[in-house]
Write a structure and sequence with these properties.
With 64 residues, the chain is mostly helical. The chain has one domain (15-59). 64% of the residues lie in helices and 0% in strands. The protein has helices spanning 15-50, 55-59. The longest helix is centred in the middle third of the chain and has 36 residues, at 15-50. The protein is rod-shaped and about 65 Å long. The chain starts with 14 loop residues before the first helix and ends in a 5-residue tail after the last helix.
């Protein structure tokens, strides 16, 4: 669905277009935030295993 950005002569834009744009930015941000958490978890698991922890125990909630 393509949304055209329409500006009125006074410089304002329709409310729905503005809300949809802000919602899009928010979900775009959430995508990168989620990716950052996945990468952080991957590196934590990698370095914990390098120190001798069991990856299965870590995933299941066990300690190092």
């Amino acid at each position: 669905m393509a949304l055209a950005v329409v500006r009125r002569l006074d410089g304002t834009e329709p409310l729905v277009d503005g809300l949809l744009r802000e919602a899009g930015r928010f979900f775009f941000f959430l995508t990168f935030l989620g990716a950052a958490f996945v990468l952080a978890g991957f590196f934590f698991l990698r370095f914990a295993v390098a120190k001798g922890a069991s990856p299965i125990a870590l995933i299941q909630g066990g300690g190092m």
